[in-house]
Amino acid sequence: MSKKLTFSISDTINAFITTIPEIEYTDGNLSGTTVAIKDNISTKGIETTCASKILRGYIPPYDAHVVSLLKSAGAAIVGKTNMDEFGMGTTTENSAFGPTLNPCDNNRVPGGSSGGSAAAIAAGYCDMALGSDTGGSIRCPAAFCGIVGLKPSYGRVSRYGLIAYANSLEQIGPMAKDVTGVSRLFSVIAGHDKRDSTSVDRPYTHTPDPSIKGLRIGLPSEFFGEGVDPKVADTVKQAISTLEKAGAEAVPCSMPSMSHALAAYYVICTSEASSNLARFDGIRYGPGGDLRKSWHEEFSDRRQERFGKEVRRRIILGTFSLAAGYFGRYYQKAQTARQMVRDDFTRLFKEVDLVAGPTMPSIAFKLKEKSDPLQMYLSDILTVPANLAGVPAISVPCGKVDGMPVGLQLIGKHFEDEKVIDAAFAYE
Ligand code: GLN
Fold it and tell me: Locate the Amidase domain: which residues (predicted)?
């Protein structure tokens, strides 16, 4: 039976790009639950922009697989959330629609790139949200806004209808106020879809179980060392002691590949982005417009005008590292480093069940604090390893520093999302 809901909020933090005032939903496991969707996930009949001028006015003719699943489960889809343009950023400031503000402190960013999704939940605008995580974009805003966010194992959630940024790294994932919410949303979106060739037949039917007796948690020294705010590191260590009291065992360890992870991530994500974003020629999708000059001139003029600065920077970087003469020097080296990260996790997961550390090296930045792109890239150091290896990782709130939330990150073995969720649930 179809039911109706009116969605009316005063969005003072710019969490949404589009809101849906009148919603119809049906019966199901999520019946009437309000869910927001990141604006890089295609929604039939609803503008989907990736927070970019190049996609303004683009109305997808189909739903992403996850959106069809949400509708079948009776979710009330309330709108599309703000983000860094095409997912490129850590603050949600790289949006053509202006920044989203952190609901805990309006002078700070909500994190990114799924900042609108996290902020909408933290502000109480909706119950749950979908984000996407290429190098931390679910976990970072979850940590900065004090909510829970899961990057699932690569392959567990279909990417059909997710507008690609760097497809070998990214997953759509659930965000909610608590672990139970994340688990409920995950159970709806996980599972096989033949339209995504990397999707696997691993539905999620688990109910979170807080018994963690004997669980071995590895603490890589690199997650608590240089570049990590000591107050954040201490808060996370206290959270680990809480887990120890509940029966877990903390195991000191090391991940030497961390010294290469960030460089590898930025070569791979920009390379994939330069290829994925080639489809946006300013003619198909979005505003279009009459051709006045030659196709080549129009192509570069429109991309220059409609892509933001960070997107253009990354297309140039990626095109450079894929150029014939430089391929071996950058892209191939990055793939070798990516394998080192995978090997480190494989070795560690023979000794421990989970790896833990802070989600982000600091609390949420002040607006405009990270105007130097390299400084912004550095803040992704603790989240990118899970994407390079394709393993599941969750961020769960674990305390505050200077009044702002801190996230505990728990990383698991490939396809052991259940274990990651259980440990987060035990902590919560
Ligand atoms: N901050 C990272 C980047 O800019 C991660 C983004 C993401 O996960 N989409 O690439």
Answer: 24-420
Each residue of 62-121: pLDDT tens digit?
999 999 999 999 999 999 999 999 999 999 999 999 999 999 999 999 999 999 999 999
How many whole angstroms separate alpha carbon 415 and alpha carbon 242?
25
| Tokens of residue 135, six digits | 């190098």
Q: What is the pLDDT of residues 233-287, one digit of tens each?
A: 999 999 999 999 999 999 999 999 999 999 999 999 999 999 999 999 998 888 8
Task: Spell out the domain ranges in the chain.
Answer: 1-428
Q: Which residues have C-beta atoms less than 6 Å from ligand 1?
A: 87-90, 113, 133-137, 165, 269, 380
Does 4 participate in catalysis according to the annotation? Answer: no
Catalytic residue among 42, 113, 114, 274: 113
Q: For residue 308, give the 3-state DSSP assignment.
A: coil
Q: What is the mean pLDDT of the chain?
A: 97
CA of 93 relative to ligand 1 center, distance in Å: 12
Tell me, yes or no, if 38 is annotated catalytic. yes
- Mean pLDDT for the stretch of residues 359-384: 97
| Ligand 1 atom at minimum distance from 137 CA | 8
Query: In whole angstroms, what is the distance from residue 32 CA to residue 298 CA?
Result: 46
Residue 268 CA, ligand 1 centroid: distance in Å: 12
Alpha helices in 165-226 (DSSP H): 179-189
Write down the ipTM of this complex. Answer: 0.97
Contacts for 288-297 with beta carbons within 8 Å, 24 or more apart? none
The reply to whether 257 belongs to the active site is: no
Q: Is the Cβ–Cβ distance between 395 and 409 less than 8 Å?
A: yes
Cis (ω within 30 of 0) for the bond into 137?
no
Phi, psi of 68, deg, nearest 5: -60, -40
* Probe target for ligand 1 pocket from 90, 138, 165, 375, with the most ligand atoms within 8 Å of CB: 90
Residue showing tokens 């939903």 = 25
Q: What stretches of 277-394 show up as alpha helix (H) in DSSP? A: 295-306, 309-322, 331-351, 373-378, 384-389
Please give the helix or strand (H or E) that residue 234 lies within, else none. helix 230-245
Name the β-bridge partners of 66. none
CB-based burial label for 172 (10 Å; 0-12, 13-18, 19+) = buried
State the pLDDT at residue 295: 86
Superfamily grouping for domain 1-428 = Amidase signature (AS) domain (3.90.1300.10)
